Amino acid sequence: MHDEWQYSVTHDAPCRVMEEETLWGQQVCRVWLPTRDAVVRVPRSALRALSASIDPETEAHRIAYTAAAAKVADVLEGQSAASGDHVLLAPMESNVIPLPHQIKALSRAVSDDRVRYLLADEVGLGKTIEAGLVMRELKLRGLVRRTLVVTPKGLAAQWASEMQTHFNEGFQLILGEDISALQRLSPNMDHRASPWSMFDQVIVTLDSVKPIDGRRGWSAERVAAHNRTRFEDLVTAGWDLVIVDEAHRLGGSTDQVARFKLGQGLAEAAPYVLLLSATPHQGKSDAFHRVMYLLDSQAFPDPTSVSRDRVAPYVIRTEKRKAIDADGKPLFKPRRTQMIGVTWESRHNLQQLLYESVTDYVREGYNR
């Protein structure tokens, strides 16, 4: 039983058996309680195998979350000085109390010198918070000073608000019209004014900075100037960390589309890259390969290089059914789904036409 995980009836919590001995004719076990970070003695009779009612996969994740959180508690008690382990500082000085899966994501992201990951938690699990924690951790370690966030226009203001509210980090939101205004106000400056050099923490909208091949009525010189100020100057501005929300949009339909070219430029613009997407694959293998290529072009040179085992080290993902709160309780109620077959009848002609049209749009046209 040594080093096995059991359930302590006395403490109503999982525990790891460290030692088993006989005292006064009774079997007694020394166990570690991760929820209390304490080692206690309990009678052998008070231990139970983790029951079938506790999902083993969920329990394994809960233990991993607890272990990551215990590192932070260890730091607060000053007990990790000699361990040589990385110390997580961001959770202790932010305004938000991270959930277990967010602490685990942070712990994994900064456990390696190569901080280039796809944060792929399901919707509602706080990928923005995870990205903010990683950013703060890298800043506190002196590894990051300049951060660029690229996001769809509808999420830009929300990003600025959450970074300020949760992490006391001020970001300058620069919209396409701001770039045009700066060019108009400073046409005669000796050095071309660049908004990217004015601020160390910037949020931009994805479509305002993607390169273009041409635009109706524009000369080649105007197109080149547009790409220079919005794309080329951006990716050469010396960023330390680039964060892209809704990163699946960078995959595009081919490797020639503007969004993928933007992604390539951003991926090469900084040593640290975080791509955020709850739906990175979307059933499009080629587009998913292009997203993974942005994280590591050598590991994913072509679509055939994408496999579950090869992708796993680059992806940090928590599913809703596995997410728990600080007390180990599920964050969401279980969801049950079932397939219900429907037979089209003549009176369903309009409904069938609508269904097939929407299906074709989603399959062939959506998000391209």
Can you offer a commentary on this structure?
This protein has 368 residues and is α/β, with parallel strands linked by helices. It folds into 2 domains: 5-54; 112-322, Tandem AAA-ATPase domain (Rossmann fold, 3-Layer(aba) Sandwich). The protein is built from 12 helices and 12 strands. Strands 8-9-7-10-11-6-12 form a 7-stranded parallel beta sheet, with helices on both faces. A 5-stranded antiparallel beta sheet has the order 4-3-2-1-5, with no helix packed on it. α1 (56-76) packs across α3 (100-109) and α9 (258-267) runs parallel beside α10 (285-295). The longest helix has 21 residues, at 56-76. The chain is globular, with a radius of gyration of 25 Å. Mean pLDDT is 84; it is low at 75-84.
Overall SS class: alpha/beta
What is the second-level CATH architecture of the largest domain?
3-Layer(aba) Sandwich
Number of continuous helical runs: 12
CATH topology of the largest domain: Rossmann fold
Number of strands: 12
General shape: globular
CATH superfamily of the largest domain: Tandem AAA-ATPase domain
Give a quick account of the main beta sheet: strands, pairing sense, barrel closure.
Answer: 7 strands, parallel
- What is the first-to-last residue Cα distance? 55 Å
Quick take:
This protein has 368 residues and is α/β, with parallel strands linked by helices.
Key traits:
368 residues, alpha/beta, Rossmann fold, seven-stranded parallel β-sheet, five-stranded antiparallel β-sheet, 12 helices, 12 strands
